[in-house]
Amino acid sequence: MRHRFLLPVVAALGLAVASTAAPADPAPFKIDPVHSQVGFTVRHFFSKVSGRFNEFASAIQLDPKNLAASSVEATIQSASIFTDNPKRDGHLKSGDFFDAEKYPTLTFKSTKVTPGENGRMQIAGDLTIRDVTKPVVLDAALLGVGDVGVGGMPAMTRAGFEATTTINRKDYGIIWNKTLDQGGTMLGDDVTITLLVEAVKDEPQAQAQPAATKKK
Question: Is residue 95 part of a domain?
Answer without folding.
Answer: yes
